[in-house]
Design brief:
50% of the residues lie in helices and 15% in strands. It has 11 helices and 10 strands. The chain is globular and about 75 Å long. 48% of the residues are buried.
Length: 377
């Protein structure tokens, strides 16, 4: 029987996405240079607040997936993924992933007045928000809750939260005495809230610990609604992270190709040697595969496709390894300069390695795929 394949045109970049990419890339080319990032991570303020304000408010990136009803653009998650690719190309210290987490959790929860107000504040860039889950939490694992709710007061500790340091509001999953899970909104400056910085491998995406002691909170969702919103946020976050990993790999490949054209050894560019060509050709193939996987994952979460869990796990397992491979090749093929602190190559390797551990390891996603696809042991 002949099978008719569905066209995959929706996985190609649209004209709107190309325009968005060009806008973000042009801005980051000036605002997030390698020199400025290297200087910033040596300070106590690694985040670039001015750049984020411009991207979030003036360009409108924070409100891309937020509905027009709540003051956003109502754009599909494929556009959110395009932005993540460009941020990955620069490893800019911007709280984009935390914003993606928070927005996805709110959009996945019932639309109450408090939820809509917070979405509007995120969309206009006035309130930076993140979701208080460990960065290592997997969308295929148990619901990550280590905080207890006593009415509208929260007590507990959550480690390794991305983009917590600059956040003004935090969405916290907590478990009530009856065992039900709720999503609560906590003011980062409220009494009973303490945020502690944690030393991270990736200095361009700091992580922090949230300690709560009878901290006042507002309930946003509870029970099945809260658990569904939390899993939705982790799934969306994993798909967007895969796009970021594609951006990391793309920059590493492009910069390395340019370098091997100009670095001479024995009177000829090292890029003319067959061994170097083969390594870069292999990486080019892997990058194309990674981009396809990441685009499909973003498309699935955008369309709430039933294949989303499979697509996300495939993308995360493959894209994370591709990003690490590309960063390692960049350092090695840049020669001695690639091993120095003055060169940005180490920033890409650290971001790639940190991303590889985020939102489920490769092994965790392989195990999830075995269950989802009913593969034999």
């Amino acid at each position: 029987m002949n099978a008719t394949l569905e066209p995959a045109d929706h996985l190609l970049y649209s004209a709107d996405e190309d325009d968005l990419r060009a806008t973000v890339r042009a801005f980051l080319a000036d605002a997030a240079t390698a020199t400025s990032i290297l200087a910033r991570i040596e300070t106590d303020e690694p985040y670039d607040g001015h750049a984020w304000s411009t991207l979030a408010h003036e360009i409108g990136l924070a409100g891309l997936p937020i509905t027009e009803e709540a003051g956003g653009a109502g754009a599909p998650r494929r556009e959110v993924a395009v932005v993540a690719e460009e941020i990955g190309r620069t490893v800019a210290p911007l709280p984009y992933l935390g914003t993606v987490f928070a927005t996805a959790s709110l959009l996945g929860a019932p639309h109450r007045p408090d939820t809509l107000d917070l979405l509007a504040a995120i969309a206009d860039g006035s309130t930076l928000t993140t979701l208080a889950v460990p960065l290592t939490a997997s969308p295929t694992g148990d619901v990550p809750t280590t905080v207890q709710a006593d009415g509208l007061e929260l007590t507990g500790t959550i480690d390794s939260i991305a983009d917590l340091m600059p956040a003004q509001a935090v969405i916290v999953p907590a478990r009530a005495a009856d065992g039900t899970v709720g999503l609560y909104l906590v003011d980062a400056d409220a009494d009973g809230v303490r945020i502690e910085s944690v030393t991270s491998l990736d200095l361009t995406r700091p992580i922090a610990t949230l300690r709560l002691h009878s901290a006042p909170a507002t309930l946003l969702a509870h029970g099945h609604d809260a658990e569904a919103a939390l899993r939705h946020a982790l799934s969306v976050g994993a798909a967007i992270l895969a796009a970021e990993q594609v951006g990391i790999a793309a920059y590493c490949l492009d910069s390395t190709v340019e370098y091997v054209k100009t670095r001479y050894q024995f009177g000829r560019p090292i890029g003319s040697y067959q061994a170097v060509k083969h390594r870069l050709a292999d990486l080019h193939v892997h990058l194309g595969q990674a981009r396809a996987a990441a685009r499909y994952a973003a498309s699935c979460v955008a369309d709430v496709d039933r294949d989303a869990p499979i697509a996300v796990s495939v993308a995360q397992a493959f894209c994370s390894r591709t990003a690490v491979q590309a960063a390692e090749e960049a350092i090695q093929l840049h020669g001695g300069i690639g091993f120095t602190w003055e060169h940005p190559a180490h920033l890409y390797l650290k971001r790639a390695k940190a991303d590889q551990l985020a939102l489920g390891s490769v092994e965790a996603h392989h195990a999830a795929l075995a269950t989802l696809l009913d593969l034999p042991a």
